[in-house]
Design a protein that fits this description.
The protein has about 425 residues and is mostly helical. Strands 1-2 form a two-stranded antiparallel ribbon. Strand 1 and strand 2 form a beta hairpin. It is about 80% helix and about 0% strand. This is MFS transporter.
Length: about 425
């Protein structure tokens, strides 16, 4: 493994998986599919077509959409630690990554069949696309300590996220051109253009994923042909859990990450809702906002990597969290469209930095010469998914109880403040940890 560290082709191929999978986050999760789902997920011939019967309950299709995301994240949070333990134990991390990648890509392709009234196809395709995307990222992220030395983590992580932002914007612009300028494509309908866009996401994801699959190294198998390999998975994750709970730096980082990720992901996922409900922005303005966030996130990732090199990862994250607090407080006073665009620019910048730095920081915190990287990163992923579910739920609950979305934003600012406490503890545990190079 040591000989493969810092191989340029391997590192570039690893970063290219961000280019491959990020189209799912933008087109499926953020831009086109959320608009298409309520229109297509209907019961044909019903007096209330937007109501869907599930397990004896009549639910609004928008509620079903929200529940699908929560259920997918719950599945990832529950099962990924166990699966990552099996992957480390059997040396099949690359195979697991490929399986989840293909599950996600083919689920996106399945959404091409999601026409009006076929809400089961749309719901299942969306569900498994999220599971495939989230599952593959656990194993993808865990390759970082295997292919690069710690001094390369920040720049390499930033490069991956930047490639993801660029690739996803390129494909989204292509797909939006079909929807907004149908005459260029033979006058196709908005429905057909949307379905083709889902298909292109799956094809793009599948094709470009072959690059990292070709170059990434195979993991070392601990026990070959062990008849009870599934028990090995349990033992592996139990061992890593014990290690994490007894390494104060990792434990405090995960708690801090859980808190600030709760705030940042909630802002990202519900920012468009704030624009539409509070400022009454049209769909075109919201799409521009999404694109703006993606583009600004690219320099944000690199600036944060440079900042980490100068002042250390922990201090860099603390600076970014302070910026997030300022963003949330500013959002409370936003009432004009121009100010909303300025806010979106700030959000995109700090989002690129916080995502990139978090991955690199956790990789640096993992013990030296650690082979169970998938198991370690599964706990990182659990904090990511669980904090997203809890954050969006709390935000939605506050809106329901108070009817004031701006109050929810101030609560998120308080969550960011709490995360600073744990990041401060992390630095006190060992002043040398994650120091600047």
């Amino acid at each position: 493994m040591e000989q493969s560290l810092n191989n340029k082709k391997t590192m570039n191929a690893w970063a290219f998986y961000d280019w491959a999978n990020s189209v799912h986050s933008l087109t499926i999760v953020s831009a086109i599919f959320p608009i298409y789902f309520p229109v297509a997920a209907i019961v044909m011939g019903s007096k209330h077509p937007e109501l869907i019967e599930i397990a004896g309950f009549s639910l609004q299709n928008t509620v079903v959409y929200s529940y699908i995301i929560s259920f997918a994240y719950l599945i990832l949070a529950v099962f990924m630690p166990f699966l990552s333990g099996i992957a480390d134990y059997t040396g099949s991390k690359k195979s697991f990554m490929r399986f989840f990648c293909y599950l996600g890509a083919f689920s996106c392709m399945l959404l091409y069949l999601f026409t009006k009234g076929h809400y089961i196809i749309g719901s299942l395709g969306f569900l498994f696309s999220i599971i495939g995307w989230g599952g593959s990222l656990v194993f993808y992220n865990s390759f970082l300590p295997e292919i690069a030395s710690p001094d390369r983590y920040d720049q390499l992580s930033a490069k991956g996220f930047s490639l993801g932002y660029i690739g996803s914007v390129i494909l989204l612009l292509q797909n939006l051109s079909m929807i907004l300028m149908p005459d260029l494509y033979g006058g196709i309908s908005v429905e057909m253009a949307s379905r083709i866009s889902f298909l292109t996401v799956g094809v793009w994801w599948f094709i470009f994923a072959q690059i990292p699959f070709y170059y990434l190294p195979k993991s070392v198998q601990k026990e070959k042909n062990h008849p009870r390999w599934w028990l090995g998975g349990f033992k592996e994750i139990k061992k890593v859990y014990h290690e994490i709970t007894h390494i104060p730096s990792i434990k405090n980082f995960l708690i801090g990450f859980f808190l600030y990720n709760m705030g940042s992901q909630t802002v990202m996922l519900l920012g468009a809702l704030f624009g539409s409900q509070e400022l009454h922005l049209p769909s075109e303005s919201l799409i521009i906002t999404i694109l703006l966030i993606q583009l600004v996130a690219i320099p944000g990732a690199y600036v944060c990597a440079h900042l980490s090199k100068k002042i250390g990862n922990v201090n860099a994250i603390r600076v970014i969290i302070l910026f997030w607090i300022l963003v949330c407080c500013s959002a409370y006073f936003v009432h004009e469209t121009f100010h909303f665009y300025l806010l979106a620019t700030a959000i995109g910048f700090v989002m690129g930095g916080i995502q990139s730095n978090s991955r690199a920081t956790y990789a640096k915190l993992c013990p030296d010469n650690e082979h169970d990287t998938a198991s370690y990163f599964s706990f990182f992923d659990v904090c990511d998914r669980a904090s997203t579910v809890i954050g969006t739920f709390i935000f939605g609950l506050l809106i329901q109880l108070t009817g004031n979305m701006r109050l929810g934003i101030l609560v998120l600012a308080f969550v960011f403040m709490l995360s600073l406490i744990y990041m401060a503890r992390l630095h006190k545990i060992n002043p040398e940890v994650l120091r600047s190079e």
